[in-house]
Amino acid sequence: MGDYTAFRRKVIIKEEYKELVELINSGDWEEAVDTYSFLKEYYDIKRSTLIPFSKEDIQDMCNEEGELYLQANPLDWEVDRTYFTNLIGLEWTFITCIKNYADKNHNNKTPIQSFIDVVISEVVNEIIKIQEYYPEDGTPVEYKFENVVAKTNKKAFFSRIFTRKSKKNADKIKVKKIPRKC
Fold this sequence. Notes:
Blueprint: E1 5-13, H1 18-25, H2 29-35, H3 40-43, H4 55-61, E2 86-88, E3 91-98, H5 111-123, E4 124-133, E5 141-145, H6 158-161, E6 162-166
Antiparallel strand pairs: 1-3, 1-4, 2-3, 4-5, 5-6
């Protein structure tokens, strides 16, 4: 079985990727990959197309009260509709809950880290909030910028500009600064 990881975020996308985001929000990954070739690397990772839940998935997974069923649910994520998958103007929000296991056939990449490295790094202009929750951690982890980088061809550059921050230990945060090699 295994544990699920909940993942949500709110970002501002680049104007030229509105059509792509609409395809992703609709769950039309094959068309998205055909149109935007940079997605191929991400698309090949197991469970990658489960990020994000499509708008239809969210409708199907909500109960009569509008609460979203999440296998891993910290705090109020199941009722915080501001993070349900949507695109308003250039503000893109989404939520998902997946088994975030490494894909042994693709250099042990996980769907969430690959989404950040491939999709977010290409389509996002500004990050408002990115959070991840794994039940064993006991509290959501929020990613914060260390440095601002416009674009790079280095793989996994987001891992060098984010720090993980646990809300539970906000006053005792250990920040791991990773030098920028761009």
